[in-house]
Amino acid sequence: MPGSRTRARYRALAGPPATATVDYFADLAEVEAQAPRSAVPTGVARYVCTESQDSGPYAGAHQVLMIVAFEVPPARTEEVERWYCEEHGPMLLRAPGWLRMRRYRLHAGCGGRLWTHLALHELRDAAVLDSAERALARSTPWRARLEQESWFAQAGRFVYEYRPEHAEGVAAC
């Protein structure tokens, strides 16, 4: 809905960073209007991204958000996009409890590592991370080729628990 955003807050299940807040805006112009005019506090990273893929909505609520972040070299971007769309994403979404996958390309960032691609995986619970479907998706020849590249091996993986008491629908200024 134009002029609005949705905010979700999460608590890390393990390791830093301890919390994450995700704001979903209707379009990039709204993001720019909301952008802080000063530097982010120490220990805080802020990423502004545009969506490149959404597996689609689902009925029900997710309890876990896994964020996978890559710093993909420009020459490898097309293959990574194809891998996620044609193989990896569909395989993950076959796992019972793997509810949704949204992928983003970095538009701007500050206060943290400047990733180029983020994938947000909404999961029913953390148990789906141990599913046979995920294991299969992580064991294909295509993925094995990508794993040989240093940028892929340095991907960030962060797992958070959804905190519904902190979720809010926020009217944009």
Overall description:
This protein has a single domain, classed as 2-Layer Sandwich (Alpha-Beta Plaits), CATH 3.30.70.100. 24% of the residues lie in helices and 36% in strands. The chain has five helices and eight strands; from the N terminus they run E-E-H-E-E-H-E-E-H-H-H-E-E. The protein has helices spanning 28-34, 77-93, 132-137, 141-147, 150-153, and strands spanning 4-12, 19-25, 46-54, 64-70, 98-110, 117-123, 156-162, 168-171. Strands 1, 2, 3, 4, 5, 6, 7 and 8 form an eight-stranded antiparallel β-sheet that branches. It is globular, with a radius of gyration of 16 Å. Mean pLDDT is 81; it is low at 166-173.
Kindly give the count of domains.
1
Rg for CA atoms: 16 Å
Q: Give the CATH architecture.
A: 2-Layer Sandwich
Number of strands: 8
Shape: globular
The arrangement of helices and strands along the chain is EEHEEHEEHHHEE
Mean pLDDT: 81
Strand content: 35-45%
Features:
Alpha-Beta Plaits, eight-stranded antiparallel β-sheet, alpha+beta, about 35% strand, 8 strands, about 170 residues, disordered C terminus
Question: What is the secondary structure topology, with strand pairs?
Answer:
Elements: E1 4-12, E2 19-25, H1 28-34, E3 46-54, E4 64-70, H2 77-93, E5 98-110, E6 117-123, H3 132-137, H4 141-147, H5 150-153, E7 156-162, E8 168-171
Antiparallel strand pairs: 1-2, 1-7, 1-8, 3-5, 4-6, 4-7, 5-6
